[in-house]
Amino acid sequence: MKKKMKKIMNKRIYFRLLISLLLTAAVLFSMPGCAVFKFAHSVGEGLLSGIGGGIISDIEGLLSVTQEPDPSPVTDEETDPDEPLLLFIRKASWDFGYDYLSGLSHPERRKEFYDRLRGVCERFHGSSATAGYDLMCRTNRDFYESEVAGLKNSGLRVAGEIIAEGLTTEEAFETYSLFQLDNPVYYWLSDNSICYTMSSVDGVIFPVLCIEKYADPEERASMNMGIDTVINEMLLEAESFSTEYGKALSVHRSIIKRIDYKTDADLENDTDAHSVAGFADGSGCVCDGYSKTFQIMMNLLGIESVCVYNLTHEWNLIKLEGYGWFWVDVTYDETEAGDCTLFFCKNDTEDIYTGTHYVGSGNFLENKHEIMKPGTSGTKVTEGYTYFELGIMIIPELPERSAVPYSGPTD
Fold it and tell me: What is the pTM assigned to this prediction?
């Protein structure tokens, strides 16, 4: 289900003034950083504010000490539910991962965290905010500078910070993984994630990381326009077909026709190749770029779809009403010659997928829930802060595929 974004309180100016006075008093009396956060929580519940460097904060009641005002605050007008870009974002997403949270530990807490992720990402995507390096832990200078250096080395900035209340670090990372699964439209959102804890916070503090290239609002605006143009062209082509099969096949062919598989050696640093950005600007994609673009188009066309992945590959499942779920792999058909549909709309019984596709780290097309940890993990503790970096991919249990090959109309 789609959640309405919280509105900024009408009296925010008075709240900010009150908070500023309290924080000033706290500094004058040399209160420790964690105590400042706790004190602000007791008087600022529900306040939504931008923090230094244009970062969007959805941390309710926990305000950071900052030396400079936000130069580019996000306003109510920029998050108007009728704003075209916001409508596009919401139509281009799906709630498969969100609904999947119901079967996991602490589902309501996870969904609250998911909604906060959605709120920050929706606001940042089309805003005039510039992602920076501010983190709540900046009250601890050594710790803060160490983490900022790590973000800079990784080509990342912080678009916002959220508290995942009552969740463990692994629960927060798992929920973030499912959020990404549902929202392939956020080309600027990093696959990498970090979080840290503070003694005064029940839960983990989760920075929303932005790829450095898109920290600049002008870069995002330019890419958003490019995506809008090419997506609308494909929608016009697809909507000329009367069946879901025909629409999906039109998109499948359009993606293959418009770009080539990216084979450059420097793919590790080519973030666009892993998202719809590489499709929109014509520079090319690898498998996850193909899969995410196809997913966005299926969402916009109202066809249920989900990205499927393992450590080395990503493709899609689609549901054709009245016929069931079928596999689609745009990438594999891209590498074939001609107008290829060898990997389009297949079920588990068709030999073309046998031995080439497996879900998670298991066997061919297994249908199970799995947590994969492909990245390195680390924990650092310093003066009340605990920092976690953990690569987690949650492989949700997938819908059962059709027991028989597709036999419906193809127009």
Answer: 0.78
Nearest Cα to 79, choosing from 97, 56, 60? 56
Tell me which residue of 201, 267, 208 sits closest to 40, measured CA to CA.
201
Each residue's pLDDT tens digit, 86-139: 899 999 999 999 999 999 999 999 999 999 999 999 999 999 999 998 777 766
Q: Where are the domains of the chain?
A: 12-215, 218-353
Which of the four CATH numbers 3.40.50.300, 3.30.390.10, 3.10.620.30, 3.30.420.40 does domain 218-353 have? 3.10.620.30
HEC sequence for the chain: CCCCCCCCCCCHHHHHHHHHHHHHHHHHCCCCHHHHHHHHHHHCCCCCCEEHHHEEECCCCCCCCCCCCCCCCCCHHHHCCCCHHHHHHHHCCCCHHHHHHHHCCCHHHHHHHHHHHHHHHHHHHCCCCCCECCCHHHHCHHHHHHHHHHHHHCCEEEEEEEEEECCCHHHHHHHHHHHHHHCCCCCCECCCCEEEEECCCCEEEEEEEEEHHHCCHHHHHHHHHHHHHHHHHHHHHHCCCCCHHHHHHHHHHHHHHHCCECCCCCHHHCHHHHCHHHHHCCCCECHHHHHHHHHHHHHHHCCCEEEEEECCCEEEEEEECCCEEEEECHHHHHCCCCCCCCCEEECCCCHHHCCCCECECCCECCCCCEEECCCCCEEEEECCEEEEECCCEEECCCCCECCCCCCCCCC
- Say what the pLDDT of residue 21 is: 42
Q: From CA 67, how far away is CA 282, in angstroms rounded?
A: 42
Give me the mean pLDDT over the 275-302 stretch. Answer: 95
Most confident residue range from 177-186, 255-264, 380-389: 177-186
- What pLDDT, on the 0 to 100 scale, is given for residue 80? 52
Asked whether the predicted pLDDT for residue 384 surpasses 90, the reply is: no
Q: Does the pLDDT at position 6 exceed 60?
A: no
